[in-house]
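In response to the reviewer comment on reproducibility (Comment 2.3), we provide here a single inverse folding case reported in full, input and output, so that an independent group could reproduce the run without further information from us. The structure tokens appear first.
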């Protein structure tokens, strides 16, 4: 549909609103329960043309699903049907809705019209958006994002934040709405809402449907045992259990226990948004299990295998805001997801509260407000299991191999030396500084600023570099455990004993080589440090997720360690500034963050970065270092040494990254 078509806003009577809600609820319930929905007559609305229709589902005011279409005129009945079906099972952000969730959902129907292009440009677009009246659609660079008129009301956003969030929904920089090349469209809509239980008669929930019948389950467990035995004997096993029908699952686990002990080894797989075939998945797990049993040198009769099958995921909120009132701990298991960590737990002898506490303890949750709480229906003969998956810290090799030489800086020693000579061309009088911040992009973009900062510092014998974690490898907070860093110009020493002490004193910090294996935030600075202080020892720390309380804990531990050192180390923040806005907008956003740093305000820095969606990757390291100095009474002055953007090098001002250099005392 072209903008400015079908601009008339529809009006609905109370009876029409009720009919729309009942029809949408019936379709959602029918889709979820795989039954034929009750037809609710829509009368004259059935064939009335609408520009768009969305069905939104919420649980405890938290979005559970929202799907629909906008732009192609459709009969209302057809648009509503499609939106309800998709909301029930096809929202790519969430698992399909579980039958167990229906009684806990609120349903909202939106009918959209009046799509029009916003003619205003730049900051004038803020006044062109009326919160509560307009929905927004953003289009730029082949991306598109849409938010309904009710979204800013749900979150308490003003018009500017509504524009920012629409850009984020589209996968664009938050302030892309200011760009002249970004198309902004607004539309209007009417909505009606009610709780699910007010709209459809939900049959009392029966005992959960089992994945396999009791006899099939017993036969399949026997097949698993015989398959593992055959693999251990070097025989060719049957790849398929003919006595059991294949089916699709969303979770499976094999539990290996040693006879006469409580020791248990678990192999598992689960998925929330897709299913996977049971028989081929279980056979693959049998192969892995046989290899483990062989390595443990266990004989037949010395171990038992237990089976867990799972399906029907449901969402319950977060650890700090969850809805587990009617959770059936006899038939369902809990799944907690915290970034790359997860805990899948089931215990028929524990009530819901105790099971949740046990799962939380097993996961070692640092930020409970971000931990997702879900459940899965399970079929198993074991009364309890606890499956915890988390990245495992690795000690790695004594020397950490160079990971990004040849990409961020030259891999050839002669070329690297020549480029370092260019970067450190100027001679300056170095002074002692407690800390500094340098960027970590490729040297051609940010090397001059980094060199200018380091050239101003009398480098001590120990330097602690703290940067952001850019990869998914390893643990969330990791200090490099190596004795040395390999570089094209020769090794640069680290301090394993100091790294160990930091890990002991700072909650959540672990010795881990995996997190540093491909990380560039530390390595990019090392040849620069080596040029100025080849005998210095450099400890590298990368930081993943975090919040202000965790930064406070880190700073307290780091301050304790520093106060026990004979010579204070240099604390070096490795961070770039905002990413991928226009040059003008990038500079504006970066100045907001840098002003908070210059005013010695770490809390304000974190708040500003999050409020304005500034993608300063090293904001947590910056807060940690500022807080550490604050606790030691040494945060008194910050001098900005330089600022630039990638556009200064490429000449392209449409999409840049910012770089700043700071000295801190």
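Designed residues, in position order:
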């Amino acid at each position: 549909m072209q903008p400015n078509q079908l601009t008339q806003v529809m009006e609905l009577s109370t009876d029409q609103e009720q009919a729309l809600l009942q029809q949408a609820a019936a379709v959602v319930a029918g889709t979820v329960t795989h039954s034929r929905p009750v037809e609710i007559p829509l009368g004259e609305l059935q064939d009335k043309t609408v520009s768009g229709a969305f069905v939104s589902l919420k649980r405890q005011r938290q979005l559970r699903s929202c799907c629909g279409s906008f732009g192609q005129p459709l009969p209302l009945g057809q648009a509503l049907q499609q939106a309800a079906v998709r909301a029930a099972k096809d929202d790519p952000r969430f698992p399909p809705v579980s039958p167990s969730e229906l009684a806990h959902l609120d349903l909202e129907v939106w009918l959209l019209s009046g799509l029009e292009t916003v003619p205003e440009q730049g900051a004038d677009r803020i006044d062109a958006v009326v919160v509560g009246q307009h929905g927004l659609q953003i289009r730029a660079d082949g991306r598109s994002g849409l938010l309904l008129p009710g979204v800013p009301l749900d979150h308490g956003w003003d018009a500017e934040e509504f524009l920012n969030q629409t850009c984020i929904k589209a996968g664009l920089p938050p302030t892309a709405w200011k760009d002249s090349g970004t198309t902004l469209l607004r539309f209007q809509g009417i909505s009606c809402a009610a709780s699910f239980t007010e709209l459809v008669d939900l049959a009392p929930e029966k005992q959960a449907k089992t994945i396999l019948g009791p006899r099939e389950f017993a036969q399949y467990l026997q097949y698993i045992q015989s398959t593992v035995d055959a693999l251990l004997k070097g025989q060719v096993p049957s790849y398929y259990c003919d006595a059991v029908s294949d089916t699709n699952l969303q979770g499976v686990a094999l539990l290996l226990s040693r006879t006469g002990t409580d020791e248990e080894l678990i192999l598992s797989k689960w998925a929330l948004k897709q299913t996977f075939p049971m028989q081929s998945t279980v056979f693959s797990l049998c192969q892995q299990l046989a290899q483990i049993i062989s390595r443990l040198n266990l004989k037949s009769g010395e171990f038992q295998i237990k089976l867990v099958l799972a399906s029907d995921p449901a969402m319950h909120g977060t650890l700090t805001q969850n809805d587990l009132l009617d959770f059936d701990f006899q038939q369902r298991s809990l799944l907690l997801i915290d970034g790359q960590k997860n805990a899948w737990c089931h215990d028929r002898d524990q009530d819901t509260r105790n099971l949740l506490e046990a799962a939380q303890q097993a996961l070692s949750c640092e930020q409970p407000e971000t931990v997702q709480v879900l459940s899965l229906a399970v079929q198993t003969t074991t009364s309890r299991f606890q499956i915890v998956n988390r990245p495992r810290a690795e000690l790695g090799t004594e020397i950490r191999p160079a990971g990004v030489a040849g990409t961020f800086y030259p891999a050839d020693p002669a070329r690297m030396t020549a480029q370092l000579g260019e970067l450190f061309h100027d001679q300056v009088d170095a002074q002692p500084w407690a800390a500094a911040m340098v960027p970590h992009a490729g040297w051609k973009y940010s090397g001059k600023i980094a060199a200018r900062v380091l050239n101003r510092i009398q480098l001590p014998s120990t330097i602690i570099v703290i940067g952001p974690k850019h990869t998914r490898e390893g643990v969330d907070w990791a200090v490099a455990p190596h004795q040395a860093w390999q570089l094209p110009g020769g090794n640069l020493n680290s301090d394993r004993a100091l790294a160990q002490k930091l890990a002991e004193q700072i909650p959540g910090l672990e010795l881990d080589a995996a997190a540093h294996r491909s990380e560039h935030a530390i390595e990019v600075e090392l040849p620069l440090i080596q040029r100025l202080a080849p005998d210095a020892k450099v400890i590298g720390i990368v930081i993943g997720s975090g919040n202000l309380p965790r930064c406070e804990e880190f700073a307290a531990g780091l301050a304790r360690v520093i106060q026990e050192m004979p010579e204070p180390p240099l604390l070096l923040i490795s961070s770039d500034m905002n990413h991928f806005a226009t040059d003008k907008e990038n500079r504006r956003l970066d100045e907001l963050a840098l002003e908070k740093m210059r005013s010695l305000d770490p809390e304000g820095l974190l708040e500003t970065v999050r409020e304005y969606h500034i993608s300063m990757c090293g904001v947590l390291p910056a807060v940690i270092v500022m807080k550490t100095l604050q606790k030691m009474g040494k945060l008194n002055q910050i001098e900005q040494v330089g600022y630039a953007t990638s556009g200064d090098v490429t000449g392209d001002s449409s999409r840049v990254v910012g770089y700043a250099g700071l000295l801190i005392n």
